[in-house]
Write a structure and sequence with these properties.
12 helices, mainly alpha
Length: about 260
């Protein structure tokens, strides 16, 4: 008993391991300050970060629902030819989601129906290539706008951009062939005619005749004159006009050719 008492006394004297030892309490407080408190602060920061992410996700989900509802309204108005309401709904979408491809397409189509082709072209051109199918639709519409306005080269470039992403776009092949034909580039149009024929299970007689007579000119002098006016520095309308001039009979009274030997 005396030995155990002496050992306990020595432990108290040397190590200070008693519950009431001030040095031991101080070490415990230091450990808490170095480990526990930073850990609690880290947990609090993680909880706050998670809360912020949750709130952001809730806001994004709510905005996505609003955009979907507005797009549905805009398409409904457009289908019923209520252009003012379709225009307003599409602008609301862009206010929530700038650069939204479907809204840009709707605004472009509204302008096309109103006959404002330059404004329609401006909206369509804002659809980014990353939009995929929406970009294809926008570029095809820009090709139609340029073709209607008489800008043959711009139309061809737009149709080519369509075919870069969708090589099976039947109408783009046909429109590109048509533009090249109008410019007198018949042989350049041939691959597009063949591609369109491969995608068309029931080609009509006109398309088959185009393939059968590659050198046949597209005789549309009024449209070619409009193309020259729309793009006076473009060589394509001049080439088309020159081919039409060369195709005219120069001397109706010329003697007949001699009979073959």
């Amino acid at each position: 008993t005396c030995r155990s008492g002496r050992r306990g006394f020595r432990r108290w004297e040397v190590g200070g391991s008693g519950r009431g030892d001030p040095a031991s309490s101080g070490r415990n407080v230091a450990v808490m300050r170095r480990v526990v408190i930073p850990l609690l602060l880290l947990l609090a920061a993680l909880a706050a970060w998670g809360g912020v992410r949750w709130l952001r996700q809730q806001h994004a989900d709510r905005r996505e629902r609003e955009v979907s509802q507005l797009l549905l309204r805009a398409r409904t108005f457009l289908a019923s030819h209520d252009l003012d309401r379709a225009n307003a709904a599409a602008h609301e979408v862009l206010a929530l989601d700038p650069g939204q491809p479907a809204a840009l397409l709707i605004l472009g189509e509204v302008c096309m129906l109103r006959g404002d082709l330059p404004e329609a072209d401006r909206w369509m051109s804002q659809v980014s290539r990353e939009a995929g199918p929406a970009y294809v639709s926008a570029q095809f519409a820009m090709g139609e706008i340029a073709r209607t306005a008489g800008r043959l080269r711009d139309a061809a470039a737009a149709y080519e951009r369509v075919l870069e992403l969708d090589s099976r776009h039947h109408l783009a092949h046909r429109r590109l062939a048509n533009v090249l034909n109008l410019a007198g580039l018949r042989w350049e149009a041939l691959p597009q005619l063949l591609a369109a024929l491969a995608l068309d299970p029931e080609p009509n007689l006109e398309r088959l005749l185009q393939l059968g007579n590659v050198e046949r000119l597209v005789h549309q002098p009024e449209y070619i004159a409009r193309c020259r006016e729309a793009a006076p520095d473009d060589l394509w309308p001049r080439l088309a006009d020159a081919r039409l001039v060369l195709a005219r009979p120069q001397n109706a009274e010329a003697p007949p050719l001699p009979e073959p030997m």
